[in-house]
Write a structure and sequence with these properties.
eleven-stranded mixed beta sheet; about 30% helix; globular; 11 strands; DHBP synthase; alpha/beta
Length: about 210
Amino acid sequence: MSQFFQIHPLNPQARLVNQAAEIVRKGGVIAYPTDSAYALGCQLGNKSALERIRRIRRLDDNHNFTLVCRDLSELGTYARVDNIAYRLIRNHTPGPYTFILKATAEVPRRLLHPKRRTIGLRVPENRIALALLEAMGEPLMSVSLIMPGDELPLTDPYDIRQTLEHELDLVIDGGYCGMEPTSVVDLSDEAPVIVRRGLGDVSEFEQA
């Protein structure tokens, strides 16, 4: 049965954040709030936790996970970012954007797009998520918390606990954080390509 932490959205309690980070480090799968919707997350490179998330969401091997990073410098560790892409990312980070970029050797191969060697990365504007990432010292492997057959993510942490209490190690209650997904922008080639229009203004990417 999953644990349930109520963490303040503006002033996250360090004790609970550190406990959540330890659960992830030990191979746990968690539900946590972001600036766009609740997400499922696990430790980078943890194969068994990754497979648990695939089972919960019923994802095939081709579904791309996102690396959720704490800042731009961490993002740069896992992706190759040229000057134009860096400027665009800096202007929209932190925020509700997922950027598809060419991956570095730091990214486990099973997380990459099989042909293009790309990875999705983002820096969320959510204090709980950022505090958790800071406590971990590395990105979270994440996907949106959308259950099989649903079109929209789960938004109520109590519903999440009731639905997934036997599947997750921890549900973080950070209050309501919306249900609209991030905007997804492919910056892996010369010109930006808007893959999905979600939260966030994408006009600057269209003009680049």
